[in-house]
Amino acid sequence: MFSQTVEYALRAIVHLAQHSPSGRTTDQIAEATKVPKAYLGKVLQGLVRKGIVNSQRGIGGGISLVKTPDTLTILEVVEAVEPIERIQVCPLGLASHGKQLCPLHRRVDNALGMVQEALGSTTLAEVLAEPTNSMPLCDFGILHKAMCGEESCEPQTKHG
Fold it and tell me: What pLDDT, on a 0 to 100 scale, did the predictor assign at position 146?
């Protein structure tokens, strides 16, 4: 349902939320999220333009969230990258339908509305605090130990 660009933006934002309020370099984010650095740079530029993240050069700089993880919703990130397009008029352009959607397109639009509602009511802090054995962006084994400094992730801990 979501593009690769949205997926990459969400990975980057989750990583930044895990390290908030500290900034992270593009290299650090790319390595932790397994997003190609060049592609990530473009995604981050878009998020800067939309006011989701700040970018500061120099010592102590990096990319950081504008809002705190407890106030930034997943929907805000998705909408900054590729807004969810609701169906306003018949996608087939049928004059007889106009704004009166057929049962199929009405249901599709209703589903899109539910997705917007679910993502709009979910903050990054809630995602990170949810008890699970599968932490976002958390890898086990040697790579995990190298990135997180621990053998494995524990629920409700911050890792990146």
Answer: 46
- The amino acid at residue 36 is P
Residues of the chain with pLDDT under 50: 140-147, 150-160
Tell me which residue of 158, 10, 143 sits closest to 76, measured CA to CA: 10
Separation of alpha carbons 1 and 31, rounded Å: 25
SS3 track for the chain? CCCHHHHHHHHHHHHHHHHCCCCECHHHHHHHHCCCHHHHHHHHHHHHHCCCEEEECCCCCEEEECCCCCCCEHHHHHHHHCCCCCCCCCCCCCCCCCCCCCHHHHHHHHHHHHHHHHHHCCEHHHHHHCCCCCCCCCCCCHHHHHHHCCCCCCCCCCCC
Q: Which pLDDT value is given to residue 136?
A: 55
pLDDT at 102: 86
> How much is the pLDDT for 147?
47
* 123 phi and psi angles, rounded to 5 deg: -90, 165
